[in-house]
Amino acid sequence: MAIAALATGLAQGCVDECVRYAGQREAFGRPIGQHQAIQFTVADMEARVHAARLAWYDAAARLMAGQPVKKESAIAKLTASNAAMDNARAATQVFGGYGFMNESPVRSTPRSAGAPRIPASSPLPAAGSLSRTCSASGAAATPSSCGS
After folding, report:
1. Residues 95 and 18 sit within 8 Å (Cβ to Cβ)
2. Mean pLDDT, rounded, for 51-68
3. Alpha carbon of 22 to those of 9, 26, 39, 101, 111: distances in Å?
4. Is the per-residue pLDDT at 29 higher than 90?
5. What is the tally of structural domains in the chain?
6. The pLDDT value given to residue 4
7. Which residues of 20-54 are buried (b: 16+ CB within 10 A; e: fewer)?
8. Domain around 39
9. With helix as H, strand as E and coil as C, how does 118-137 read?
10. CA–CA gap between residue 20 and residue 3 (Å, rounded)
């Protein structure tokens, strides 16, 4: 769950930096945050962060309640690490060319967001663990019935 929390924080950091930058940077006589394309990008980023945060909050609540958390922690890790990578890419797009400059706050974010995806903690084993949990419960036809 620590990986999910870390990845969620990285994804949120990307949103925060994009919102700040979009309010400062002007193009065509107005802040870029007033352009629909940037607004939609930031909205998608916020939705990913929200889903990731809910996933790891759910896993943490189950852990605190003494319930099994294998499936929920795999979901949290998968959701959060994907959100971090997707938001890092989106942040680089919002920042444009400045996103690749050394002084840019999002320059190293794609590398940082990739940290939760290193082989020992890759989202692929989390996805594999999740699929095995579902298959073991005989829930291939009804994913909502996957057991923990």
Report:
1. yes
2. 97
3. 20, 8, 9, 17, 22
4. yes
5. 1
6. 92
7. ebbeeeeeeeeebbeeeebeebbeebbebbebbbe
8. 2-139
9. CHHHCHHHHHHHHHHHHHHC
10. 26
- Report how far residue 71's alpha carbon sits from residue 65's, in angstroms, rounded to the nearest whole number: 15
Residue type for position 46: E
144 found inside a domain? no
Q: pTM of the predicted model, to two decimals?
A: 0.77
The tokens for 148 are: 């923990």
Q: What is the reported pLDDT for 140?
A: 46
Angle, in degrees to the nearest 10, between helices 36-64 and 2-24: 160
What's 65's domain CATH number? 1.20.140.10
103-147 confidence digits (pLDDT tens): 777 776 666 666 565 444 555 565 666 666 666 555 444 444 455
